[in-house]
Amino acid sequence: MQQAIIDFALDDENHWYAILSCGHTQHVRHDPPWQNRPWVLTEHGRKAKLGVMLECKKCETRSLL
């Protein structure tokens, strides 16, 4: 289920995660070559992604119950 990014925060290991409009969170790590998200490393890059839709696996799982 698609949800909009409303904010970002750092976890205890200094990895960025997106806070979604549904209240759930999802990591958005820049960890090449597996995950190439250099935009997450700058404030400007993160701000540019506000409102972008991400697939929320927690909402998807709950909708199947």
Automatic annotation (TrEMBL):
InterPro entries in the cross-refs: DUF3565
Superkingdom of the organism of origin: Bacteria
Pfam families membership: DUF3565
Record protein name field: DUF3565 domain-containing protein
